[in-house]
Inverse folding.
């Protein structure tokens, strides 16, 4: 099996490299220019390699390929990629959140959630508490939240008599992965929101995403989606919750954590301080000195300063921040390099001298043009949800954002609205293991069979389109 896997790897690698470096030597097609053929080939090669081979090395090679093309040079590539403040913000946000996660704060959040008396004798309240708990915890802990809740549920299922294959266990375990996924993109300065914002600003320089509307709309869509999922568990999938009548809070207090240390309380305060400082410019009067300074620094500058101040603090003679450990364990470098490459290629794809924009419009105009704004959003969301379930969701998000930037002007839609909606749609990716990291962990859970995941993934995908079009779009249009 290893030999077959290795052969496929090299076959896909060769195909991707041929696309990346070979298309540029072909005669221009339609409105494409020679430069457009080179940039388009790099883009297609990246899409292929990202989806079927790897994220890290294709991103690095893509940067080199751009520098070799006639579109720019290495200075231009580095400016468009690592010179973008979005990349810096992503690195140090991951670092700050990593410090908080390492201190064990997510475990305290879970302990507090699981010891609420309201869950006793109320199976569906318990279910909602689990889903909401996974959602809240994932805002800071991401994938860790899913694994922490799963470990608690495995023990609980064993204690109250559930077995592998029981309907409720499968639904709740998938629901935890789903809730965790929804929580990871709530903050626009982290994860998918950050990637989409950077892509938008590369394609449409000068556009701005205000943080409060993004948070409010995604919070409403996510909570509504979790509520619909819980209702589906009860009325559509008819899960048996009889064993849950036995659940008592004492079951979760056997290994009670010690009181939070002063350091843990400080880090929790520091995390909240970061969120407040990043949101303040959207609320304070624009003429205030604090607003002007925070706006001048931008989100990246604010996080850099906060991270530097955290590095000053020492505990027992050692720095609180061990950047080497953070860089190795908590900073998702494949996401950082994907973001850098995506920002670079997006800025060149939309340049008029490539002809790529004209070609895309020729292809997509029959689908997207001469519709109402609502129908356009519907088609965009359907396409995003379908593609993100069969390809890598980060790649699809970048592609869909770049495409939507061609049409938002015609429909007089603020591109920030599309960022908000795509941040939701392109994260609902569970159908295949390669669709997203949450799809991967769901398929890797031995309590879940592939046929169950296909069923639940289809339900949440349909729900995503309905919630985005009927609730998210009107609300985003109102607030942005």
């Amino acid at each position: 099996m290893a030999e077959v896997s290795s052969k496929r790897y090299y076959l896909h690698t060769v195909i991707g490299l041929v696309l990346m470096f070979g298309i540029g030597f072909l005669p221009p097609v339609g409105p494409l220019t020679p430069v457009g053929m080179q940039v388009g080939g790099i883009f297609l090669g990246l899409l292929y390699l990202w989806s079927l081979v790897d994220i890290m090395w294709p991103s690095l090679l893509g940067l080199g390929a751009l520098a070799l093309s006639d579109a720019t040079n290495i200075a231009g590539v580095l400016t468009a990629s690592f010179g973008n403040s979005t990349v810096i913000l992503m690195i140090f946000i991951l670092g700050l959140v990593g410090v908080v996660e390492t201190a064990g704060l997510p475990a305290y959040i879970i302990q507090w959630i699981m010891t609420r008396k309201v869950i006793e004798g109320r199976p569906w309240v318990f279910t909602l508490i689990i889903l909401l708990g996974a959602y809240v915890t994932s805002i800071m802990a991401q994938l860790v939240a899913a694994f922490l809740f799963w470990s608690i549920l495995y023990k609980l299922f064993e204690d109250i008599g559930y077995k592998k294959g029981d309907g409720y266990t499968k639904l709740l375990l998938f629901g935890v992965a789903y809730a965790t996924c929804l929580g990871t993109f709530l903050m626009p300065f982290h994860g998918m929101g950050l990637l989409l914002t950077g892509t938008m600003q590369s394609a449409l320089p000068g556009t701005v995403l205000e943080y409060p509307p993004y948070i409010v709309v995604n919070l409403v869509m996510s909570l509504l989606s979790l509520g619909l999922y819980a209702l589906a568990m009860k009325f559509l999938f008819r899960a048996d919750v009889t064993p849950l009548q036995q659940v008592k809070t004492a079951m979760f207090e056997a290994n009670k954590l010690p009181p939070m240390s002063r350091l843990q309380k400080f880090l929790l305060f520091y995390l909240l301080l970061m969120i407040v400082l990043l949101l303040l410019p959207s609320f304070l009067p624009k003429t205030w000195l604090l607003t002007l300074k925070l706006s001048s620094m931008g989100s990246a500058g604010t996080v850099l300063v906060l991270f530097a101040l955290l590095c000053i603090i020492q505990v027992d003679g050692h720095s609180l921040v061990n950047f080497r450990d953070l860089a190795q364990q908590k900073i998702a470098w494949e996401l950082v390099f994907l973001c850098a490459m995506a920002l670079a290629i997006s800025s060149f794809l939309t340049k008029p001298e490539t002809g790529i924009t004209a070609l895309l419009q020729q292809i997509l105009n029959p689908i997207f043009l001469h519709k109402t704004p609502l129908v356009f959003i519907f088609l965009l969301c359907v396409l995003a949800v379908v593609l993100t379930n069969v390809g890598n969701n980060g790649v699809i998000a970048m592609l869909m954002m770049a495409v939507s930037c061609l049409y938002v002007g015609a429909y007089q839609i603020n591109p920030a609205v599309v960022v908000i909606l795509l941040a939701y749609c392109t994260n609902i990716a569970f159908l295949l293991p390669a669709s997203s990291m949450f799809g991967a962990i769901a398929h890797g859970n031995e309590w879940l069979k592939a046929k169950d995941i296909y069923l639940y993934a289809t339900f949440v995908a349909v729900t995503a389109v309905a919630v985005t079009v009927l609730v998210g779009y009107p609300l985003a249009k109102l607030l942005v």
In short: The mean pLDDT is 87.
